[in-house]
């Protein structure tokens, strides 16, 4: 009989963690995931897992605690580990920055060192980010683009990327970094601009809200569809024998204005009638947009982004309307 593969997903209750858990359950894996103690006590933070809660194994684990991670790896002995958990909010306070850099870097290092000691054959995916390129010098960026992070979050991801690469080169571990560009879905957090727009459009449509306040609507992003991005993560560990780092992106740029146009027109409204520009939401200038060159991942493991931007935004609006109508709770 074939052995059931075991996987550990850190941050399983997030957008990507929950889609990845679904994908791996469908592929027959035994799925384990870590969550924070504060998450299990908050129904809103567990909502992405409601439909699969009894099929997965949840572990409360503080990822900046080396001993806790070591014990967890010893208990599960995973065949694959997807390290998705990270403090990702943009913050400018000194205390927050210290904790972001500490917890994001230490969790990655503790996880790798425990895997090296206990299950050196375990394949590891690390969630990198286009924020590693930050103030990029070229667009689109490929895997050879110089890192130029503009936030402590980006810096913590670059530092982790190097430790992931170092474990691959020095200890021969199967470790990879996926440099994901923005990816959205009905499970995206409400603070991100796509979800802010689609959830407010749903409220306006149903008469709960009158306007939408945004910052710079000319900013452009490379927006992909999260369920497809978790497929890319799995492929990086399973469709090649050579561990490597890949950009995961669509390669296409859209502006915040494009999101507005699609979201409002999907319910027959014009965004111009509802939009208020609020300088408080402006971010420092971005001259060169973050767009990913996806040639490497396409050629090596046959992954390409498929879902259209328009379909994705429309799906998010429809989902937010359903939530407000109480059908999706
Ligand atoms: P991220 O900044 O790439 O992680 O993703 P966001 O979804 O938070 O922001 C995407 C872009 O939308 C950024 O360039 C923002 O400057 C722009 N944006 C414009 N108005 C807003 C807003 O009200 N909220 C957010 N989150 N972003 C906004």
From TrEMBL:
It catalyses: GDP-alpha-D-mannose = GDP-4-dehydro-alpha-D-rhamnose + H2O. It is an enzyme of class 4 (lyase). The keyword Flavoprotein does not apply. Residues 8-316 form the NAD(P)-binding domain. Its cofactor is NADP(+). Its EC number is 4.2.1.47. GO terms for molecular function: GDP-mannose 4,6-dehydratase activity. Keywords: Lyase. The keyword Lyase applies. It comes from the Bacteria. GO terms for biological process: 'de novo' GDP-L-fucose biosynthetic process. Belongs to the NAD(P)-dependent epimerase/dehydratase family. GDP-mannose 4,6-dehydratase subfamily. PANTHER family: GDP-MANNOSE 4,6 DEHYDRATASE (PTHR43715:SF1), GDP-MANNOSE 4,6-DEHYDRATASE (PTHR43715). Catalyzes the conversion of GDP-D-mannose to GDP-4-dehydro-6-deoxy-D-mannose. This is GDP-mannose 4,6-dehydratase. It comes from Selenobaculum gibii.
């Amino acid at each position: 009989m074939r052995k059931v593969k075991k996987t550990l997903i850190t941050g399983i209750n997030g957008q990507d963690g929950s889609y990845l858990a679904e994908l791996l359950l469908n592929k027959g894996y035994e799925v384990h995931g870590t969550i924070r103690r504060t998450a299990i006590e908050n129904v809103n933070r567990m909502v992405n897992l409601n439909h699969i809660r009894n099929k997965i194994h949840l572990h409360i684990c503080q990822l900046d605690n080396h001993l806790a991670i070591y014990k967890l790896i010893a208990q599960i002995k995973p065949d694959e580990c997807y390290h998705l958990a990270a403090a990702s909010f943009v913050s400018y306070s000194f205390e927050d920055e210290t904790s972001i850099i500490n917890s994001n870097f230490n969790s990655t290092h503790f996880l790798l060192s425990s895997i090296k000691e206990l299950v050196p054959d375990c394949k590891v995916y690390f969630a990198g980010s286009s924020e590693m390129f930050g103030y990029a010098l070229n667009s689109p960026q490929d895997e050879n683009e110089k890192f130029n992070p503009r936030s402590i979050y980006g810096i913590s991801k670059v530092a982790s990327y190097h430790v992931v690469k170092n474990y691959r080169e020095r200890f021969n571990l199967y470790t990879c970094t996926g440099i994901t560009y923005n990816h959205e879905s009905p499970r995206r957090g409400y603070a991100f601009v796509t979800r802010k727009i689609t959830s407010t459009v749903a409220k306006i449509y149903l008469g709960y809200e009158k306007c939408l306040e945004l910052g710079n609507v000319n900013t452009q992003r490379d927006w992909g569809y999260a369920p497809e991005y978790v497929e890319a993560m799995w492929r990086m560990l399973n469709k090649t024998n050579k561990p490597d780092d890949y950009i995961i992106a669509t390669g296409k740029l859209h502006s915040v204005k494009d999101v507005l146009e699609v979201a409002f027109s999907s319910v027959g409204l014009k965004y111009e009638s509802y939009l208020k520009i609020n300088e408080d939401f402006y971010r420092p200038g971005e001259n060169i947009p973050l767009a990913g060159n996806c040639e490497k991942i396409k050629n090596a493991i046959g992954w390409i982004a498929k879902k259209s931007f328009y379909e994705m935004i429309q799906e998010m609006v429809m989902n937010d309307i359903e939530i407000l109508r109480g059908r999706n709770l």
